[in-house]
Amino acid sequence: MKKTISLSINGSECSAEVEARTTLLDLVREQFGLTGAKLGCDIQVCGACTLLVDGKPVSACSMLAVDVDGCAIETVEGLSRKDKLHPLQEAFMEFGALQCGYCTSGFILTAKALLDECPLPSDQQIRDYLAGNFCRCGCYQEIMQAIKNVKGQA
Ligand code: FES
Ligand code: FES
């Protein structure tokens, strides 16, 4: 049986018909074509599927779409403004903070949530906040540099 939910995605109000088992990740990727968030582990360990729900990072692989009824969802596709990238996106490019890019959407959204909450985090606060995001290409140093470069500006 399907249920209709209403939500906002990157600032646009929308609705969707979902089954009880539909995950938030499947909803954004399959119904809205927003494929920046990726399926990695599927068990809430790697962070590749991270999205922001009401400003907080969540593992979209492990959250049901019915549970975001009425919520505001942000995906990496919503970060740029017209043709201008978000400062975190610019910094990830500038510092080479990605190789294959599979983890990048998750890292950028988690970092955005951190900087929204705490504009001038210490190195340890950055590491702690990002502890649930894995980069199999091992770009951790560059990711740290990119986030530190954006502190206080994002
Ligand atoms: S795919 Fe969701 S945490 Fe890994
Ligand atoms: S850039 Fe490849 S997994 Fe992070």
What do these coordinates show?
The protein is built from five helices and five strands; from the N terminus they run E-E-H-E-E-E-H-H-H-H. It is of the alpha+beta class. The protein has a five-stranded mixed beta sheet, with helices on both faces. The chain is globular and about 45 Å long. The termini are far apart. The model has no long low-confidence stretch (mean pLDDT 96).
Per DSSP, the total helix count is: 5
Residues in β-strands, percent: 15-25%
| Fraction of helical residues | 25-40%
Q: Segments where pLDDT lies below 50 for 5+ residues?
A: none
Write a concise keyword list for the protein shown above.
31% helix; 154 residues; alpha+beta; binds FE2/S2 (inorganic) cluster; five-stranded mixed sheet; 5 helices
Write the layout of secondary structure elements.
Elements: E1 2-9, E2 12-19, H1 24-31, E3 50-53, E4 56-59, E5 72-74, H2 87-94, H3 104-117, H4 123-129, H5 140-150
Parallel strand pairs: 1-5
Antiparallel strand pairs: 1-2, 3-4, 3-5
Helix pairs in contact: 2-5
The structure holds FE2/S2 (inorganic) cluster (2 copies).
